[in-house]
Write a structure and sequence with these properties.
- The chain has seven helices and no strands.
- It is mainly alpha-helical.
Amino acid sequence: MAVVWWFGTQQLGNGPAELLFQQARASFHLFHPLHICLSAIATTSLFWRYERHVLRAAWVGAWGTILPCGLSDYFFPYVGGRLFGQPMQWHVCIVQEPQLFFSFLALGILGGFWAESRLRGSHLFSHGAHVFVSSAASLLYLVSFGFTSWMTDVQAIFPVFAIIVLAVWVPCCISDVVIPVATAHKGHTHGS
């Protein structure tokens, strides 16, 4: 938050707000696909640890990423901004830029197979990176699509922090831990 705040206030002080929105959107469209990729790596690799069934692992990796990432990067920031009276715009990359979304999803699923096969416990690293990138993506969505008042109004900082914590904590834990562990048949190790 501090880094985004610093860059945002510098931009607001040096130029039109529209330039800030453009830069934030460009950054969001960097962090959001990275978030999708890291989430798919973490979900797929943890499932793959417990069950070596290629099609099920790809299915769990996909749905364990699509829904939680949508909640984290679109839904929670949008609803949170609206609840705090901000003029949020609704933007959903899976609909508006599907090639960006699905290419990084596929890369992440493949990365999950590779990571768990090469480095046992790789889901721990990918989960940590996933949480960091998810925080950045959620925050950049807020800035990109309507909630910039927190950069100039100290009273809006805690609401933004609360939105980010909910947007990251709930979906990322569901994606990286709950879904792969709940769906895997432990001890089932034959491939398909």
